[in-house]
Amino acid sequence: MDIKGGVTIITGSATGVGAACAKMLAAKGCNVVINYTKSETEARETETACRHLGVQTLLCQADVSSDADCRRMATAALDKWGRIDALINNAGTTQFVDHANLEGLDAGDFHRIYAVNVIGPFQMIRAVAPAMKAAGHGAVVNISSIAGVMGIGSSVAYTASKGALNTMTLSLARALGPEIRVNTVCPGFIQGRWLRAGLGDTIYDAAVAAQQRNTPLRKAGTPEDMAQAAIWFVEGADLITGEFLIVDAGSHLGGAPLVAR
């Protein structure tokens, strides 16, 4: 897909992987919708960076767990540009609870995490699908996690939600072809405030060192690493749908402690 002059919606794009996706797309000449729920200051910084790269932007505060918000975001993009070429479902949430602590989660935690990590991507895909179908092309990239493949991660609820997102990728890849491709990036460890805040400085720093020492590629992943994979699915994988790409410097092969996004 030629994304120059096109339009991509990136959910959760104020910071981290989402912001990296927005900036990389902008550098390629793609107009971007930057979405946030609470991080308005960071979202505006990302928007400014994209505009400086010469593209048009749309800043949209919306909660992907709300179907009305998802439809409003898609409508806003169509009103501005008349097209939606790609969607990167990056917005996510979690709760850090040791997997052995079965009392550490309740049904409300599962509902909250699933609402953002599973229902949100579904609602966003549903909101953009008619425009993509009408145009005869579209690419969806779900940002999942190695947690959904390996059964690891910040909590059982988070791991289960990413497993559900992976299987939903398969279902919707079948249902939305031939016009729309649906694929998933499964990050491993990603340097940044998400894991630092959840793990604490000491464990986080040790995990970065372990990634750099023990993974086959001797590297701890960055938001930019994940953005490269996501954008490849958008612009460089025209014959690929229903696939998962693990991006973790090879840590799933063994060696480094497995710490998921």
Observed structural traits:
261 residues; alpha/beta; Rossmann fold; seven-stranded parallel beta sheet; globular
Explain this structure:
The chain is an alpha/beta fold. The chain has a single domain, classed as Rossmann fold (3-Layer(aba) Sandwich), CATH 3.40.50.720. It has nine helices and seven strands. It has helices at 16-27, 40-52, 67-81, 107-135, 147-150, 156-176, 193-199, 201-214, 223-235, and strands at 7-10, 31-36, 57-61, 86-89, 138-143, 180-187, 244-247. The chain has a seven-stranded parallel β-sheet with strand order 3-2-1-4-5-6-7, sandwiched between helices.
Order of helices and strands: EHEHEHEHEHHEHHHE
Overall structural class, as computed from helix and strand content, comes to: alpha/beta
How many beta-strand elements?
A: 7
Mean model confidence by pLDDT: 94
- CATH class category name: Alpha Beta
The Cα radius of gyration reads 17 Å
Query: What is the CATH-assigned architecture?
Result: 3-Layer(aba) Sandwich
Report low-confidence residues grouped into runs of 5 or more: none
